[in-house]
Amino acid sequence: MEECPVSDFKLKAMKFQYRLTALSTIPLGLAIIIFPGLVRKAFKMKEQDQAVFGITGSVYLAFGLLSTRGLKEPLKWSPILLLQFVYKVIWFTGVLGLMAKRGEFDLESVQWLMIGFVPFVVGDPVALPWKYLLGREH
Which pLDDT tens digit goes with each residue over 4-43? Predict the structure, then answer.
C-alpha cells in the first residue's frame, strides 16, 4: 500500500477548506446568478455589468461544486484550493491595491468581500500540500 504524501493534519485542513469553500460559494454563486440585484443591495455593491457579475457567480459556484469533490479526494483536487488562494491574493494586492493608489478605494463596497476572503487567504496556504503540488514529494 502506498503511503500518503501529506500529513493527517494537512488532509484535515484541506477538507476543512473544501467544506468552507462549498458552504460559502455554492449559495453565493447561485444568488449572484439568480438574484444579482438583491446580492448587490445586500452587500452594498456598486452597480455593474450583469454579464461580468455573472462570471463572478459562475466562478464561485464552480469553486463550490469542485470543492465537494475535494472532500473525497483531497490531494487530487488541491489545485482548486491553490487557484482560490492565488486569485484572492491577486485581488487583494492588484485590484484593491491599485484602487487605493488611484484614490478609488471604497471600503463600503468591498468590505464583505474582504471579510469573506480572509479565511481563505489565511487557511488555504496552511492547508495546501505545497511539496505535493510543486512536485517535490513523490
Answer: 788 999 999 999 999 999 999 999 999 999 999 999 999 8
Q: What is the pLDDT of residues 42-69, one digit of tens each?
A: 988 888 899 999 999 999 999 999 999 9
Task: Count CB neighbours of 26 within 10 A.
Answer: 18
* Domains of the chain by residue range: 8-129
- At residue 69, the pLDDT reads 97
pTM: 0.88
Rounded distance between C-alpha atoms, residue 53 and residue 106, angstroms: 18
- 3-state SS record for the chain: CCCCCCCHHHHHHHHHHHHHHHHHHHHHHHHHHHCHHHHHHHCCCCCCCHHHHHHHHHHHHHHHHHHHHHCCCCCCCHHHHHHHHHHHHHHHHHHHHHHHHCCCCCHHHHHHHHHHHHHHHHHHHHHCCHHHHCCCCC
